[in-house]
């Protein structure tokens, strides 16, 4: 009986450590979407940020009221597409997301 309890406890610890490692191994892309206005950039709220990988849409998020966004991704090569009503789409090809690193994109829409 004690061996079963120990085995279950050991497995639980291993799973927990694996979950923590997985969480810390994830990284992503973050940034701010803005339009240049005179001397001050103006944030573009609710801009859509699409992340693609090999012609597959991975995730879509929207910028907050300050134009900021953050996306957690596993390491890999992606394409970021940013769209907002009244602006031309912006595309960033091949940003390489590496483990424990976050790519910062400041995106000026036209």
Q: How does the SSE layout of this entry go?
A:
Layout: H1 2-25, E1 27-37, E2 40-43, E3 48-53, E4 56-62, E5 68-73, E6 76-83, E7 90-97, E8 102-108
Parallel strand pairs: 1-8
Antiparallel strand pairs: 1-2, 1-5, 3-4, 3-6, 6-7
What does this structure look like?
The protein has one domain (27-108): Immunoglobulin-like, CATH 2.60.40. 22% of the residues lie in helices and 52% in strands. The protein has one helix at residues 2-25, and strands at 27-37, 40-43, 48-53, 56-62, 68-73, 76-83, 90-97, 102-108. The strands form two sheets. Strands 1, 2, 5 and 8 form a four-stranded mixed beta sheet that branches. Strand 3 and strand 4 form a beta hairpin. The model has no long low-confidence stretch (mean pLDDT 86).
Key features of this structure:
110 residues, alpha+beta, Immunoglobulin-like, 4-stranded mixed β-sheet, 4-stranded antiparallel β-sheet, 52% strand, elongated
Brief characterization of the structure:
By secondary structure, the protein is of the alpha+beta class. The chain has 1 helix and 8 strands.
């Amino acid at each position: 009986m004690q061996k079963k309890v120990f085995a279950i406890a050991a497995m639980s610890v291993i799973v927990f450590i694996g979950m923590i490692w997985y969480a810390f191994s994830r990284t992503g892309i973050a940034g701010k979407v803005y339009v240049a206005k005179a001397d001050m950039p103006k944030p573009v709220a609710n801009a859509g940020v699409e992340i693609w990988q090999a012609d597959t849409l991975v995730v879509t998020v929207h910028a907050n009221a300050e134009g900021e966004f953050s996306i957690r991704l596993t390491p890999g090569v992606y394409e970021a597409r940013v769209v907002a009503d009244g602006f031309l789409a912006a595309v960033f090809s091949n940003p390489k997301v590496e483990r424990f690193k976050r790519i910062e994109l400041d995106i000026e829409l036209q």
